[in-house]
Write a structure and sequence with these properties.
420 residues, homodimer, three-stranded antiparallel beta sheet, alpha/beta, seven-stranded mixed beta sheet
Chain lengths: 420, 420
């Protein structure tokens, strides 16, 4: 019934937004810390110091790459932890000794309990906001346009005297929209000057840069952010490695208390191999990104054009790519709706031919709900469930694209036939 | 001036309570997940499923080793996170939608806000308790006797109608005292029956088993615990790997919100190599522990005897070892006070001869404070600062002990001379 393509020998992997393979150089850098150099960095003897030095030189390297001071880098176990640390950390630090009771408490909470984000954030932001709502705090989710760009007017109008945090993702994990972080940062800086004059609390600005770190400029000063989350597993680094950048003078509270590691903001014995690997991965990503982006954009646009030419009633979700503006969409992201085709079925058939693509974001797939991102872009539930995400990586080739387009075309055709 | 011992070729590592090298079999088990098998376990395609299967078979293996159901194992990024998840998780789940304000809030908080621990816990417990105190909750720290055993009478008397959690460590990281967890569990079970009749909330029982997991029985039913924390980096597994056991029916709230991994209790892409390595490490530790313990106890007692024979004004801290009772002190722990010797100086000199020992616990060393554990055992500040911790591992030999005792004896003698 279905096209009799032979599986390729090698799997064709098109889901780099979900997970990237460990880069060979990253693996080489972290390996000594999986064998001989196993010391605990908190210890003052030589075996501890060699681990400590590895952690600190990784911190210095990352700081340099993002234009920060080493003391601003807090290592975490991955991107979700980093984002949670930013959001809950700011919130709990702003509150008077938490859980205030009575009138004074009510007043101080009333003053300090509003935060803003977008409707298309990763679940680690959305669900942190929902948990804070459950604690009685107030939140605003700013909507986006049909390409996924945040409504800047609404953002600007949504701030209140009691707003303490804006968290906007740098680039979207599903449709690749690159949000105008530097523009928001610039506006907020001016806004905070006005607030200062009015004796209102500063609004802190956090960006989830987990999907952006492999492709975009991460300089925290050019971006104008106070907090930034990055993880390793999306940039050819180790899983559950990541960091939160915290600007000098910004107060946050830890999620995890203990031995006081990471300036008391993330206790627990440091994951030395993870940290070393993360620093190496970020170094490679930032060093190679302009060249890499060029290759990916070419491949992406070739892929999209070929699909839209070959398959009817197919459409690209997220920012248009024809504009040649490289700052609107992640170089590796393709998100497609095929009318009349169930995205999950398409994904599973492609898998059976050795091609890995995703439906929606990785973290939400178990639930089978339509993507909240596609819905926010104005797609119907049906359209959202008829979509797949293809995210290219540095190993992908034109041959793989050609081969895959052939299979996608045939499978879509067959699925449409059976659906009738 | 100081004895002219030649450094050994190989470092003699006596700090296994701070960090253990990765076991060769563990490394072998996790390595495929650092290369080919890099998929994100949340994805439904084959590359995701192979990662998912590795996570789930690791979960099943660990569950079997501790007598639990797989759904009771929540993977975390290390021991401190596991402990924090237990303590904050229970606390936030017991509170009505957090931060209650006004009379109703005050009343419900009054009913549900007391927790108990011991004075000699790891900082991840102590500092979590202190953070909760800062939020207005009430805590009790139970004292210990001169050997580090918890005062059971006081523990029993300290519970209140509003008590919701008791957290007692299974074995102490500094002096090796093994606390009577099963006895507490048994008493608490009976106590909870009485409370049920009185319509009082159940008191949950958590144990920090991070130092115990390599040596002791971890069966959660024999121990009678509702929650148990274990990490990998103390049992020859990967750093920042760990889990929290949560008994069926026990409600906790997450520390980290996001994609809903780990039954919504620990979001973030799973650390597949870390999880696979943790399961393998726990399997090896529990399989070999009785044989391993025998070897370690022999070596430990030989070490202690030789030190106390060779060096005057030296004493062992923690449980006596002459009693032949193997259930009182961790098989690998030695903690010694040398009067008139600064522990840190001794540690640094030993390091210069290639011997790694610790002062106090790893996580508190940067501060230079005397160990809170030794103070709780009744030692003076001066005695506490004159102490070192030696924790043996499966690679250590009698030859290493002989060689080290010679150096320790000479260095102690020299340090005492200079101190005069």
């Amino acid at each position: 019934m279905f096209p009799k393509f032979k599986r390729t020998e090698k799997i064709i992997y098109f889901d780099h937004a979900a997970a990237t393979p460990l880069d060979r150089e990253v693996k080489k850098a972290l390996e000594p810390f999986l064998s001989d150099k196993f010391g605990n960095p908190s210890l003052l003897y030589s075996k501890g110091r060699e681990a400590k030095e590895a952690v600190e030189s990784s911190r210095a390297k990352i700081a340099e790459l993002i234009g920060a001071r080493p003391s601003g880098i807090i290592f975490t176990a991955g991107g979700s932890e980093s984002v949670n640390l930013a959001i809950f950390g700011v919130m709990r630090a702003c509150l008077p000794p938490a859980c205030p009771v009575g009138r004074a408490g009510r007043e101080s909470r009333g003053k300090l309990s509003h935060l803003i984000t977008s409707a298309i954030e990763h679940h680690c932001v959305i669900n942190s906001f929902k948990a804070l709502e459950g604690e009685g705090h107030r939140t605003t989710f700013i909507d986006v346009d049909g390409e996924g760009f945040i409504n800047l007017d609404k953002l600007k109008k949504s701030i209140r005297p009691e707003t303490i945090l804006i968290s906007i993702m740098y680039a979207n994990n599903e449709v690749g929209t690159i949000e105008p972080i530097a523009e928001i940062g610039k506006w907020l800086k001016a806004e905070n000057e006005k607030r200062k004059a009015k004796n209102l609390p500063k609004i802190l600005f956090h960006t989830d840069a987990c999907q952006a770190a492999g492709f975009l400029d991460l300089n925290v000063n050019r971006l104008g952010v106070d907090l930034m989350s990055v993880n390793g597993s999306k940039i050819y680094g180790p899983k559950q490695s990541g960091f939160l950048y915290v600007r000098d003078g910004v107060k946050i509270k830890p999620l995890i208390y203990g031995g006081g590691q990471e300036r008391n903001l993330r206790s627990g014995t440091e994951n030395v191999p993870g940290i070393v690997g993360l620093a190496k991965a970020l170094e490679l990503a930032q060093k190679d990104r302009l060249l890499e982006n060029k290759h990916l954009i070419e491949l992406r646009d070739y892929f999209i054009k070929k699909i839209l030419t070959n398959i009817s009633q197919a459409s690209l979700n997220g920012p248009a790519v024809s504009s040649k503006d490289e700052k609107r969409r992640l170089p590796n992201n393709i998100n497609l709706t095929f009318q009349g085709v169930e995205g999950e079925a398409l994904m599973l058939y492609l898998d059976s031919y050795g091609i890995c693509v995703a439906t929606g974001s990785a973290c939400a797939t178990e639930e089978g709900d339509p993507s909240h991102v596609l819905l926010a872009l104005g797609k119907s539930k049906k359209e959202a469930l008829s979509s797949i995400r293809i995210t290219l990586g540095k190993q992908n080739t034109k041959q793989e694209v050609d081969w895959s387009v052939g299979i996608i075309t045939a499978v879509v055709k067959e699925l449409r036939k059976t659906a009738k």
